[in-house]
């Protein structure tokens, strides 16, 4: 790090300025100390600083207002907020307003301060165009299989999550279903100081109230019918670790009361118990509903909401960062390759265009399922539009340009064309499983048959063939059984039919399992 680094300290306590002079003297930084908001504004307007350390509360100024002024006048200056223990919520809001990070006073660890300033300087270099280095959190994300993507919205989100991960504060994650709230919660756990202890997740909307209470707090032997033994709850199992409460908005009001008590006192009692049990957990809650509206509607406790909403992270929907779809697709292709024994499977340009055009109401979970299903239907290495599920079938396929002399289409290898046609038949089979689709399919099949006959006649090729839907179905069922190694349940799921229906078709066509 070069020596011509300018650091601005804004704090009304003279001792704080002297502390930083002693601490940073050996770094040979140029240090300026401002003891008031007035002095700070003079320095901000006349000086050039790389890092500013700003006290949140000054006699004549508010630290958040100074933060906004610094970022307005000197946008490349990274700001670190200094705050007391009781104002952590405001300090977190400062990060959301553009602060690099915050540190609590009194300062307990000098090394932490030095490291924080160094990180702020490195971050400032990246913002000025030095992008050779990757984000500090990237190895953590890679270790847990979290593909963040490259969109600014996702990078800002995960950078924010990384900054608050080491703070012992509760987090509320909001986002639509399928956006990856649990994955983000796990990232916060892995990036924090509790990674050596458990990360425990529970879906508050998946269990009835009596079971959820037992799941959260445990129960004593004989406390209710079926309680044959004492059982620890997840607050006890997650001690010193992280507890992820998914769909917290679905918890009943009585459960909310008990959750509030744990967050306030760090104590709970098992169902049927009489002795309080102490727990030290970090709570990360998630919801896809508007909790503020739920508070207004009296379906969610206001005091619990504010206990959980110390830091709020909003995950954007996939349609808000569609540029990440190719990156996510490649991630899922790699994730599922062992399942299908394919190392180099890719999506064709036309198939990728259909993915980019889709609205993705199910977000990343829907994208993962789409990639999984497409790989199951593809016999070759290139996933074509025909391999996509029927929700994409209404989209226009960009393959008709060959009729106009497009060499890129004419030069498609014959094996790819065979794979495309073969999997088109598989798609027809899946669509025809629902008899309501047959009236719409038959005209298409009839037109295809006529075009094939005409093409063969024009080219003087023997056209003695028949298009028999039962033959297509028999081949498709046999292929599914082969791919699934005779597993009836998996093959039925792949074909989109019931197990009994598949058994009947195996018998009708005389297929072996």
TrEMBL record:
> Where would one find coiled-coil regions in this protein?
none
> What Gene3D superfamilies does the entry give?
1.10.8.60, 3.40.50.2300, Homeodomain-like, P-loop containing nucleotide triphosphate hydrolases
Superkingdom assignment: Bacteria
A molecular-function term among this protein's GO annotations: ATP binding
Q: Which GO terms describe its biological process?
A: phosphorelay signal transduction system; regulation of DNA-templated transcription
Show the InterPro entries listed in the entry: AAA+_ATPase (IPR003593), AAA_lid_NorR (IPR058031), CheY-like_superfamily (IPR011006), Homeodomain-like_sf (IPR009057), HTH_Fis (IPR002197), P-loop_NTPase (IPR027417), Sig_transdc_resp-reg_receiver (IPR001789), Sigma_54_int (IPR002078)
Identify the Pfam families for this entry: AAA_lid_14 (PF25601), HTH_8 (PF02954), Response_reg (PF00072), Sigma54_activat (PF00158)
Domain spans labelled Response regulatory: 6-120
User: What are the Sigma-54 factor interaction domain coordinates in residue numbering?
Assistant: 147-376
Keywords from the UniProt entry: ATP-binding, DNA-binding, Nucleotide-binding, Phosphoprotein, Transcription, Transcription regulation
What role is this protein assigned? Answer: May play the central regulatory role in sporulation. It may be an element of the effector pathway responsible for the activation of sporulation genes in response to nutritional stress. Spo0A may act in concert with spo0H (a sigma factor) to control the expression of some genes that are critical to the sporulation process.
* Stated name of the protein: Stage 0 sporulation protein A homolog
Provide the species name: Desulfofarcimen acetoxidans (strain ATCC 49208 / DSM 771 / KCTC 5769 / VKM B-1644 / 5575) (Desulfotomaculum acetoxidans)
